Amino acid sequence: MLALKILLTIFLSIFVMFVGLLYKGIDRKIAARLQARFGPPIIQPFYDVIKLLQKENIVPENAVPWIFNGAPWLALLASISLFFYQPMGSLPPLLGDRGDIILIIYIFTVAAIAIVAGGFASGSPFATVGAQREMVLLMSYEFPLATAIIALAWYYSKTFPDLPSFSLYTYVLKPIWSNLGVLGVFGALLILIAILVVTPAELGKIPFDIAEAETEIAEGVMVEYSGKNYALFYIADGVKTIGMTALIVNLFFPWNLSSILGISGMGAYILDFLFFWIKVLVLLTFSVTLVRVAFARLKVDQIASLYWFPLLLTSMVGLLLMVCDKLV
Amino acid sequence: MGKVSYGYSVPVGPIHPALKEPIEFHFEIEGERVKDVKIYAGHAHRGIEWIGTRRNPIQCLYISERICGICSVTHALALAFAVEKALNIEVPPRAQYIRLIVAELERIHSHILWAGVAAHEVGFDSAFMLLWKIRENVMDLLEKITGNRVNYAIVQIGGVRRDINEELRREIWKSLDYYRTLSERIKVLLLEDPTFMMRTRNVGILSKEDALSLCAVGPTLRASGVPKDIRQDQPYIAYADIGVKAITPDIYTGEIVGDVYDKTVVRLLEIDQSIDLIDKALTMMPEGDIVYEKNLVKLLNLIKKGEGEGVGRHEGPRGEDVHYVKIVAGSENLAVWKIRAPTYNNLLPWVPMFKDAEVADIPIIVASTDPCMSCLNRVTVVYPSGRKEILTHEELHKMSVEKTRRMRKKC
Predict the structure, then answer these.
(1) How far B123 CA lies from chain A's nearest CA (Å)?
(2) If we measure between CA atoms, which residue out of B45, B23, B56, B135 comes closest to residue B306?
(3) Single pTM value for the model
(4) Least confident of A230-234, A242-246, B251-255
(5) Which helix (H) or strand (E) element contains residue A215?
(6) By the CB < 8 Å criterion, does A310 face chain B?
(7) B15 in contact with A at a CB cutoff of 8 Å?
(8) Per-position DSSP letters for B240-292, written without gaps between them
(9) Are the C-beta atoms of residues A129 and B359 closer than 8 Å to each other?
(10) Contact (CB<8Å) A210/B360
């Protein structure tokens, strides 16, 4: 059983890296079409990674080598491990008995911390500015995100006292929308908005890509990375992107096709699995691609005030509405 | 007690992804705030004036187009004005109108290009892509009129080299209609976009006093609320017939702040103005010759015999461009050629604009004056040993005093 689990883990790791890169390619293609460009071929990210792996891996003279080289691995492993705790379609999470939504939030933080550590360790002023910005970003979006998650978990713990309220599989088995009252629906919508606004920041995409900000600080945290290390960050970015979208899909859009079509057994698992990835792609397009072509990059103080006041208020009101829904 | 600094220094340039050309800034940063800035120019000196004094004015026209990749006709026009003034050459009216049309088309393409770059600097890549796509139309039109997309080679001493026929006139009108329908949408795309506004409003403010005392030119000056435009103040070629009014941002927004947003407003309004100017010029264009002297050998002989000096000025997309030439009898080459490109004037206004800016604002502030480094660099002092040096004001003054003494002794 353990051997099977290890085998599945390895398979899943390779699979999510593949999907991460593929979805990155689709994201780039869609963005290009929206900007009236042709854009690169969809498999361009694979070419990029192959090329990067062949390139020289330069470690700057005044970098701290073990952190500098370790950070990309940490970022990649953290991003991949997101998927060990997430259900996919009707498949239960691989390591569902060992971690839940709280762990997932922590893993996101670890991935961000890895980028910060790599930036600070590269010893370049641009990377230092980038790493500071990433820290500010992290501090800005964690609070609204945590509030949103707590709101959901509290609601589940009250509605289904006998199910583990922090486990993502609960959210898949009991879709959130079917158990809410009118107030609760509004609350859940506000929480969904809060999480959707956090998404581009979590992933470092425009309008919140201040840590890399090509024109301002020359790719910031990534400025000194090259070759293999950069390839690892590149894959980690792809995996993290689908990880975050998968989380939202699991929390808010957990419906499966098999129960509607009346299929069961192995076919149901495969169908739901495919449908899950389609949902991820659609959500990715709406929450990342469309957002990043529609906006300019914001400044660090603007982002901090956006997250701390309007967005925190949004998720707080969401929490309040859900509480009212349960108590009234 | 010395001043304690908690900041660090961030170099931007000579090579930096935000700046498309080589210029070097050293920013003293505290947190995300710019405390001080030092600007080092001089990375792209190509010795164009020196090259020019070894060629005749007609050849110099083509060199002058290569001073800047974007305002090509600006420098060629300014040089042609200077030479024409020095030799008292009369430019036929039709040529004046054609010069105006090409110059204004260039302004349209340059301002759209700038708007795209500005959008890119604040991370608004979609606007960048779309604006540059729109710009293709005027580039194609310029190619139809002059034969080239950039470095048009249309200006000749005493006129222009190609006429605008009836078919081209229709093409230009078609293109003007295209830009008329788009200009409102460009304004919505940039000026009404909340994120673009957040990034440009109250960023890089240049006050009216600073703008005047630091001799800013072009849209940078006008955005600070100074209605100065050579096309309005000292109209030349066909501008005098048509009439131009300098554009200030309060026409659109009702107030003058002098920030990057205002500079965007001025440039976008100038696109509309250029469309109107070309429209009027096409209607009013008289028939007649397009050049003072068709025969180049005759023209060269005229230059060889002539003597005099002249200053040519043209309001380019970036501001006032000044060329000074001196022609002596017996030589067909320019004796002196001095160029003062608009970016040179817009160098110092950067300093007050950077005051208390954030690191994130640096690229958009740099871009806001629409700088062109290769136009700017006119002199680099290199000693025979290869040592490069920056001369201070005192040293330059001392050198000029010494030179005056030497010349007095000779007399």
Answers:
(1) 5
(2) B56
(3) 0.83
(4) B251-255
(5) helix A214-217
(6) no
(7) no
(8) HHH------THHHHSS---SHHHHHHHHHHHHHHHHHHHHHHHHHPPPS-SBS
(9) yes
(10) yes
Cα–chain center distance at B303: 27
Is B126 near chain A, with CB under 8 Å? yes
pLDDT at site B178 = 92
Collapsing DSSP states into helix, strand and coil, what is residue B327? Answer: strand
CB contact under 8 A, A301 and B32: yes
Q: What is the C-alpha separation between B88 and B154, in angstroms, rounded?
A: 20
Name which of A46, A53, A105 is nearest A78 in CA terms.
A105
User: Rounded to an integer, what distance in angstroms lies between the CA atom of residue B29 and that of residue A132?
Assistant: 13
A303 interfaces chain B, CB cutoff of 8 Å: no
Closest CA to A141 of A197, A211, A82, A206: A197
φ, ψ dihedrals at B73, nearest 5°: -75, -20
Interchain contact, B123 vs A209, CB within 8 Å: yes
Cross-strand partners of B315: B320
Burial of B137 (0-12, 13-18, 19+ CB in 10 A): middle
Please tell me which of the candidates B16, B18, B199 has its beta carbon nearest to residue A296.
Answer: B199
- Strands B336-340 and B319-327, bridge-based pairing: antiparallel
Length of chain B: 411
- CB distance from B13 to chain A under 8 Å? no
Exposed/middle/buried for A257, CB within 10 Å: 0-12, 13-18, 19+? Answer: middle
Interface test with B, best of A28, A62, A124, A216 (most B CBs within 10 A): A216
3-state DSSP call for residue B36? strand
User: Quick one: pLDDT at residue B2?
Assistant: 46
Residue B111: which pLDDT band, with cuts at 50, 70 and 90? very high
- Sort out which chain B residues have CB atoms less than 8 A from A297's CB and list them: 122-124, 195, 199, 360
CB–CB contact A298 B8 (8 Å): no
d(CA B218, CA B235): 15
